[in-house]
Write a structure and sequence with these properties.
The protein is mainly α and 388 residues long. The chain folds into 3 domains: 1-83, no CATH class; 100-220, no CATH class; 265-388, no CATH class. 61% of the residues lie in helices and 0% in strands. It has helices at 2-9, 17-27, 38-43, 45-55, 60-73, 77-83, 86-97, 104-114, 118-126, 141-151, 166-173, 177-184, 194-198, 207-220, 228-231, 238-241, 243-246, 254-268, 273-283, 292-295, 307-320, 324-332, 335-345, 349-363, 378-387. Helix 5 packs parallel to helix 8, helix 7 packs across helix 8 (104-114) and helix 8 (104-114) runs parallel beside helix 11. It starts with a helix and ends with a helix. Mean pLDDT is 82; it is low at 224-256 and 369-384. Residues 367-388 are annotated as: Disordered. It comes from Jimgerdemannia flammicorona.
């Protein structure tokens, strides 16, 4: 059987498109990772991948099979290395951003796999793009992808695509320090940072879109010595303290606002409105300790239903406890009470464990001599990596 497949691969670069299309259609099934012939195809990546990349430029049906094959094969790093091609990545992103592309969602899935490979992430973060009418006037590729993700919700931008898998792309990009910088930097063309545009999707009904955005937020909140927050001299403890200032119309610090909204969304997704009302009714007479967004939760508010994503949200709060001032602000905002109530109603062990770690951080004894900025030492950095 292996020899038959090897013979079939030769037809992928046959002069006749009909022959190429038929050969590809028969090969697609073998590219699945569960196929016993998957290793054979991966081992021939140097000759197979160039043929598949060329077939991605054929008619939509043939291109569809080619992209499907690459999605399956790109779980292997050797295949990703072969796909680290500037021209191919540009073609793939055009398939995503062109408003009438019927292959946009497949291209998003492939890009999601490819951005697990660091050199491709770096290339995308550095890539430029020509302004595209109806999508983005930016000259950065990352802005085009973010705008497609935002404008494409409910198929508003492209009736053939939903762009959910771009959320996974953003999560992969922000796993790198350079990506975190890119997502909190405000873009010149609209004075908004990419993170500004993403936080509202933490409650989207699609778990892929929602989960990718939550993961992106978690990565951006990482506070290590290479954190983008250091660039702006903004630590986590700034987030709640500047909320009043950032509500003023004269505020130009869009990046600060995006971080504040991140902070608020993290907390409002941890509890149902029912538990918040009980919490405030039975334990607090003064509601002012809670942010307005929590006080005004609608009666039908539901917390994040997926336990893995709830764990990510809690881990994000845990990241906020890595500085002294961050812990002080979380205490002032009664986060301990929210986490305590959540822990009582939580059944997932991983989420319970993270909740307990947050409580330990908030209940720890503090060094009273250090009232200002407390920089993380090497041990804290190791803890940060463990959380992420």
């Amino acid at each position: 059987m292996d020899q038959h497949i090897i013979d079939l691969l030769d037809f992928l670069h046959d002069p006749k498109i009909e022959v190429r299309a038929i050969a590809l259609h028969n090969i697609v099934a073998f590219t699945d990772k569960t196929s016993p012939h998957y290793p054979l195809l991966v081992n021939r990546a140097q000759t197979l991948v160039p043929d598949l990349k060329a077939l991605c430029r054929e008619d939509p049906i043939t291109a569809h099979d080619a992209i499907r094959s690459l999605i399956n094969l790109s779980s292997d790093q050797n295949v990703c290395k072969e796909l680290n091609d500037e021209k191919f990545i540009k073609h793939l992103t055009l398939l995503i951003t062109v408003s009438k592309s019927i292959l946009a969602d497949l291209a998003c899935m492939l890009l999601s796999n490819l951005t697990k490979y660091e050199p491709i992430c770096t290339g995308i973060l550095d890539a430029t793009a020509k302004p595209m009418e109806g999508l983005s006037s930016s000259f950065r590729l990352i802005d085009h992808l973010v705008d497609a993700f935002v404008k494409g919700v409910d198929k508003a931008y492209n009736p053939e695509a939903e762009f959910h898998f771009l959320a996974s792309v953003f999560a992969n990009l922000t796993s790198l320090p350079k990506g975190r910088f890119a997502f909190i930097d405000k873009a010149k063309y609209d004075n908004l940072s990419p993170l500004n545009k993403l936080v509202c999707f933490t409650e989207h009904q699609n778990i892929i879109r929602r989960g990718g955005v939550i993961s992106t937020i978690k990565y951006v909140l990482m506070s290590s010595k290479t954190s983008p927050l250091r660039r702006y001299d903004i630590k986590h403890y700034w987030i709640p303290r500047v909320s009043t200032f950032c509500r003023l119309s004269c505020c130009r610090s869009v990046d600060l606002r995006s971080l504040i909204w991140t902070y608020v969304y993290l907390r409002t997704l941890l509890l149902d409105a029912y538990y918040i009302h009980r919490l405030t009714s039975f334990q607090f007479k003064d509601m002012e300790a809670f942010p307005e967004e929590i006080q005004l939760l609608p009666d039908d508010k539901k917390r994040e239903p997926d336990p893995l994503l709830r764990a990510m949200l809690c881990e994000s709060l845990l990241l906020l406890t890595t500085t002294r001032e961050g812990r002080d602000d979380l205490r002032a905002k009664k986060v301990y009470a929210v986490i305590q109530r959540m822990h009582l109603s939580e059944e997932d062990e991983r989420v319970q464990d993270v909740c307990e770690r947050i409580v330990q951080m908030l209940k720890r004894d503090e060094d009273e001599e250090n009232e200002k900025i407390v920089e993380m030492d090497e041990e804290d950095d190791l803890k940060m990596e463990e959380i992420a």
